[in-house]
Design a protein that fits this description.
Blueprint (H helix, E strand, L loop, with lengths): L37 H17 L1
Amino acid sequence: MDYGKTGGPQKAGNNVPRHKEHNAKGSKKNPFGKNASKAELLARMKAAAAAKKQD
């Protein structure tokens, strides 16, 4: 007897996310192949720190 074949059928799509992320890779907000350079990242971080410091 093949005990591996006993039981109910498996549910399809167990690894499917319940929703889509707003900034998922390949979307309009985050297209493929668009990586910010390190200089741009540092500039954004410095601007955010300065804005937080002023508040």
